[in-house]
Specification:
This protein has 554 residues and is mainly alpha-helical. The protein folds into two domains: 1-137, no CATH class; 138-547, no CATH class. The protein contains 20 helices and four strands. The chain is globular.
Length: 554
């Protein structure tokens, strides 16, 4: 029996760039030649084994359906190209982006190269053992067979989010509201620092630290105690998880792997997901919880898993537990179970809040301290037709296709890059506009796709179970009503509805999911959307770079 075939050396060779990037990132925390060599052996052994499997999977995909395989190849190739394109986009901003974050120091490059050799032999032995034991029957193989597309697309978007997270969350962005009214300075501080008070003293996030900080600490242990990079990485990981969950929902609901990939790519490339997969805040975690709750309902998981997701949503931001009640009501349609779910949530939120403030004393007020809610008054505005119009445009258009953002210069340390600005201190309400041919064209096409989805939904409304679709509509109405009065830049809350809009459309478009012309249209739209939305990141760097007087990684 052969110990390996030609796929293994090819996988070993093709996997070197991926291993280089992973080890380069880890070298920020493990700097000695020995540490780099050990990480290289471990990472490249795994990469080579996975590459061996991947080459076999690609061959089977081509034999099974050559056209589907070709469309997938175009999509994944484009997403791989996005990584160096993002790097080159950031590289000119020398005081914002540290290229060495993703490069090995010259002193350890020899160790890296030498360590690639034993990795090959370890992979060869592992492949030989697995072949003898018929690894196709293993749980890992079955998991990869069922989830490969979602894992790959989530990983590629994670890499994009991580690169920009390493730019927009550095400590010298030491003010809130710089990007889309996000409190990124506060949350970087709360997630990573020994002192973790909410200096705005708000009760809306009852036990957020109890949920997020342990994961930061766990990654910080891997990163040799560097919790700042742990927070970067966790934020990007959760962004990638959201992409995976969208893929999982569509694939398991509709059973079309290529269509699920295209929808997940559209979601990952949306302006809302790009921004909040990269900028530290609380919102990407809320999107992940909402999507996880949908998957729990889809797969008919037990009540305790719903409760865990609901408590997590409530603990991060009180209002977001409403999404879980809405989804439960329309999908399960079981009032008794909904009441039980609500009673369990209600019974546990108080002790969890007490536990939170016991572990993190003086971190924030309790959510039942209504006196502290008065501080939220500065975020409330009159409900007007103009605000409703602008909010609708942010929800349906700007959350997916990025316009040229607003630049607000109000005398603070950094100019603000926003999508929408409420009428503050009698200044006029402002909304970002599309100012390029590409942006205009994509917005028009996206508007057409929205209308198409609405028409198809109404056409088929009596022919299929629309529980999830009605849940998405109710979620959108809930957030429209909430933010008709609340929020300075409503784009800040966009991840609360972006998934709902896209999954509603994915279900509404189901009659077209197998149509080759529609698949090609979605693929072309996604590729152009990535180009357009990366321009938003270029604007964010270009506008704020002049205010940073020295490299922010020092």
């Amino acid at each position: 029996m052969k110990t390996f075939d030609k796929r293994l050396p090819l996988a070993w060779l093709l996997g070197i760039p991926a291993t280089y990037l992973a080890v380069s990132y880890l070298e920020n925390f493990h700097k000695t030649a020995l540490q780099v060599a050990l990480w290289t052996i471990l990472v490249h052994s795994l990469v080579s084994i996975f590459g061996y499997y991947l080459l076999d999977r690609i061959k089977r995909e081509i034999v099974s359906n050559r056209i589907d395989a070709s469309l997938k190849a175009v999509l994944f190739t484009a997403l791989i190209v996005v990584l160096p394109a993002s790097y080159n986009l950031a590289k000119p901003f020398t005081n914002l982006f540290d290229p060495l974050t993703f490069h090995l120091d010259a002193s350890v490059r020899v160790s890296f190269v030498v360590a690639l050799i034993p990795a090959f032999f370890i992979a060869m032995i592992a492949v030989s053992i697995n072949r003898r034991k018929n690894w196709r029957e293993s749980r890992i193989h079955r998991f990869l067979e069922e989830n490969l597309g979602g894992l790959l697309i989530a990983f590629l978007f994670f890499c994009v989010y991580l690169l920009f997270a390493s730019i927009f969350n550095r400590p010298h962005y030491d003010a809130d509201d710089v990007f889309f009214d996000a409190d990124s300075n506060l949350y970087r501080y709360r997630y990573t620092m020994p002192t973790y008070e909410d200096y705005y003293w708000r009760p809306a996030h009852p036990f957020i630290l109890l949920i997020i900080r342990p994961f930061v600490a766990l990654l910080g242990f891997l990163f040799n105690g560097n919790k700042l990079f742990a927070a970067f990485t966790l934020n990007a990981m959760v962004g990638g998880l959201c992409v995976y969950l969208v893929w999982y929902f569509v694939k398991h609901k509709l059973g079309n792997p290529l269509y699920a990939l295209l929808i997940a790519a559209l979601f990952g490339a949306s302006s809302a997901q790009l921004v909040f997969g990269s900028v530290i805040e609380s919102y990407i975690y809320l999107a992940a919880v909402a999507l996880a709750f949908l998957v729990i309902l889809l797969t008919d998981k037990p009540l305790y898993m719903q409760v865990i997701a609901g408590l997590t949503a409530f603990g991060i931001t009180i209002s977001n537990v409403a999404q879980t009640f809405i989804a439960h009501f329309f999908v399960r349609r079981n009032i008794k179970q909904l009441i039980i779910y609500g009673l369990i949530i209600g019974a546990l939120v108080v002790p969890l809040s007490l536990l939170h403030n016991f572990i993190y004393p003086d971190s924030q007020p309790y959510f039942w301290d209504f006196a502290t809610l008065e501080a939220e008054g500065h975020n409330q505005f009159p409900a007007t037709f103009q605000r409703a119009d602008y909010l609708a445009r942010v929800m349906t258009l700007h959350s997916f296709v990025a316009p040229e953002p607003l630049v607000v210069r109000d005398g603070l340390p950094f100019p603000k890059v926003w999508m929408f600005r409420a009428s503050i201190k009698k200044d006029p309400m402002l909304l970002a506009n599309y100012e390029t041919m590409l942006g205009d064209a994509l917005a028009i096409v996206w508007a057409g796709l929205l209308v198409l989805g609405g028409v198809l939904f109404l056409k088929n409304i009596r022919r299929q179970d629309n529980g999830f679709s009605f849940a998405f509509i109710a979620t959108l109405l809930f957030y429209f009503a909430l933010h008709l009065r609340y929020g300075k830049d409503v784009f800040l809350y966009s991840v609360n509805w972006t998934y709902a809009i896209l999954l509603f459309l994915a279900l509404a478009w189901r009659d077209l999911a197998e149509k080759r012309w529609f698949q090609i249209l979605l693929l072309a739209f996604v590729l152009l959307l990535i180009v357009n939305n990366l321009g938003m990141f270029e604007t964010m760097m270009r506008i704020t770079a002049p205010t940073v007087k020295f490299p922010i990684w020092k």
